Amino acid sequence: MTHALPQIAEHADADALSLLLSSFGLVGKSPRLIEAVEIALKVSASRGTTVLIGGETGTGKELFARGIHYHGCAAGAPFVAINCAAIPETLLEAELFGHERGAYTDAHEARPGLIESAGAGTLFLDEVGELPLALQPKLLRMLENRTVRRVGGTVERPVLCRIVAGTNVSLEAAVETRHFREDLYYRLNVVRLDLPALRDRVADIVPLAEHFMTEISARRGDAPKHIDGSAAEVLLAHGWPGNIRELKNVMERATLFASGNMIRRADVRIQRRELVSASTLGALEAGRISIPKEGKTLAEVEQEVIRLTMLLTAGNLSAAARILGISRPTLSRKMRESGLTRRSLLASS
Q1: Residue 197 and residue 265: Cα distance in Å, rounded?
Q2: d(Cα 213, Cα 13) in Å, to the nearest integer?
Q3: Which pLDDT band holds residue 263 (cuts at 50, 70, 90)?
């Protein structure tokens, strides 16, 4: 059953707005957040419409996917989430599409995949940009025909679920570099929902911090704590590269170290990133990737790009991955393949 919730409008009162956002598990009042919820509500009213959710790591993509599901007419059906980067490529096909008995050595019995398991509900494909190229045509075919064939099978089974895909990298860039199929990109990008980073929601930082602090205190059985002005200044001055997830961790530490019922400046312990040295910055500004007369392989050029980007971001994998337009797991894999480590890169600077 679809939840009866107030429609957002410019004149919506604070209580109605708070109710609506909390139904998505959200806290805040920034215009970009409200706009994203408006789009999500419209999509939830449409049965089966495919959605692509973009946003940095920690901005709440799965929260929005769940919100779309539980505000829709299929709220009673399963919500199934899978991280495409967390499952080895050799297992991912069977996880998604299922397999028949005898499809491979350990397939002693038939098993439906996650697409079938979602039934008439929602399948959330997080980090869809990490979907192996070999599997992308099969997902495209499923989206076009709305049928799925298990590994080792011949029967076409109907697909009833809505597909919501999440990405923290630019799929447009991945299409340009041929790491992601253009036709699959357009199939997924029926409705686009871009989530704002926390640095673009400054008005929401302190309310979110208070929300997390209340949750953490309740979980520990502690008395509620409050944030004083000096602590709020520290929170507002930070850029929050880790977004909401980073803020939650900071508040967990703050409630642990605070004495009494007040969070003060000294309690807000933000783990700052290492700064790039002046010599490294100078080298980056002056340096270029050079191609000698004897030439340089594409792998060598890619290794040099990764090296320079990691130096520019002081070894921060997430920031470097965003600059390069790839996911953090992909960057980690490429570094392993090239024999690069964060420690060695920073030591060389």
Answers
A1: 24
A2: 25
A3: very high
